[in-house]
């Protein structure tokens, strides 16, 4: 076999574009979020050790110019501690130049690890965990079937930070629909303040036809806020977000107004920029650019 072994489409955070992507699991262990079509119909499993080993060997021989590793797919943190520690150990031994390993972890799999286990993973090179928070609004978390309460989400996020691992979270603009837009915005700002992550990515929800939310939208039971309402939502969210440091990004291709806010110093400037956009003094991205 030549090259890395991949099954299906590989999803990774934008910040891992320059990383070696090692696919250690297939699918997502939760796979129930109503807005997510990424792993529809895919049964979650951990890939064979032999395949993972071969990939690490391949990367060690051929990808020495890359400094980071990302472990895909949806929720690699669910891998039992001994096995995950073994994978990190192998990466460290075979690729000692690697500076950081990252992965997606959902709240449940984070909470299945004890603080000591997370510290062990950190010592073996796990440098960043990506967590999909989506919303801080308890009702919205329930509606989108995130499978975790607000309290547990906070606990999970904090556990990563307390283990000395960087935490990058995503929240979804529009995910609560039009009616709950502002509740979602405020509660999400407040959960971000409680978790105090290193990075926040506020992405605009794309309603996909192959999802439960897509079906609800077609039936008229879910309405995505209009671009202007999404901007008001973003403003409200940012205004309620109090982070001690880190970045609040809203620069995904699916967003209407790209923002990179150094927290807390640039927050007021960013709010003023959003206000200018709301007053028509800054142009929003035209609709056709969103698909880029
Ligand atoms: S946890 Fe993530 S990958 Fe899994 S269903 Fe939810 S959004 Fe999709």
Automatic annotation (TrEMBL):
SMART domains on file: Elp3
User: So which residues are the signal peptide here?
Assistant: none
The record's InterPro entries line, in alphabetical order, gives: Aldolase_TIM, BchE-like, Elp3/MiaA/NifB-like_rSAM, rSAM, rSAM_sf
UniProt entry keywords in alphabetical sequence: Iron, Iron-sulfur, Metal-binding, S-adenosyl-L-methionine
PROSITE patterns this protein is in? Answer: RADICAL_SAM
What does the record give as cofactor?
A: [4Fe-4S] cluster
Q: Annotated Gene Ontology MF terms?
A: catalytic activity; iron-sulfur cluster binding; metal ion binding
User: SUPFAM superfamilies from the xrefs?
Assistant: Radical SAM enzymes
Give yes or no: UniProt keyword Metal-binding.
Answer: yes
Against PANTHER family, the record matches this protein to: ANAEROBIC MAGNESIUM-PROTOPORPHYRIN IX MONOMETHYL ESTER CYCLASE-RELATED, RADICAL SAM SUPERFAMILY PROTEIN
The protein's name: Radical SAM superfamily protein
Tell me the organism: Desulfacinum infernum DSM 9756
């Amino acid at each position: 076999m030549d090259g890395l072994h991949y099954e299906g489409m590989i999803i990774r955070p934008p910040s891992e574009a320059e990383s070696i992507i090692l696919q250690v699991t297939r699918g997502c262990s939760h796979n129930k979020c109503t807005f997510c079509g990424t792993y529809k119909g895919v049964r979650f499993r951990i890939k064979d050790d032999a395949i993972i080993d071969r990939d690490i060997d391949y990367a060690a021989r051929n990808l020495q110019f890359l400094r980071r590793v990302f472990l895909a797919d949806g929720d690699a943190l669910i891998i039992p501690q001994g096995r995950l520690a073994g994978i990190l150990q192998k990466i460290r031994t075979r690729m000692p130049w690697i500076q950081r390993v990252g992965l997606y972890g959902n709240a449940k799999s984070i909470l299945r690890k004890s603080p000591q286990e997370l510290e062990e993973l950190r010592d073996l090179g796990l440098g960043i965990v990506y967590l999909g928070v989506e919303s801080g609004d308890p009702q919205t978390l329930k509606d989108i079937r995130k499978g975790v309460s607000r309290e547990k989400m906070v606990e999970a996020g904090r556990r990563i930070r307390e283990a000395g691992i960087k935490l990058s979270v995503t929240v979804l603009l529009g995910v609560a629909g039009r009616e709950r837009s502002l509740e979602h915005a405020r509660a999400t700002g407040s959960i971000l303040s409680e978790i105090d992550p290193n990075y926040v990515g506020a992405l605009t929800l794309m309603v996909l036809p192959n999802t439960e939310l897509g079906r609800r939208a077609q039936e008229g039971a879910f309405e995505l806020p209009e671009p202007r309402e999404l901007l008001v939502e973003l403003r409200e969210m940012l205004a309620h977000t109090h982070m001690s440091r880190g970045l609040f990004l809203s620069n995904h291709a699916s967003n209407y107004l790209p923002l990179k806010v150094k927290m807390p110093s640039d927050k007021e400037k960013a709010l003023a920029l959003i206000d200018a956009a709301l007053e028509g003094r800054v142009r929003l991205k035209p609709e056709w650019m969103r698909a880029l």
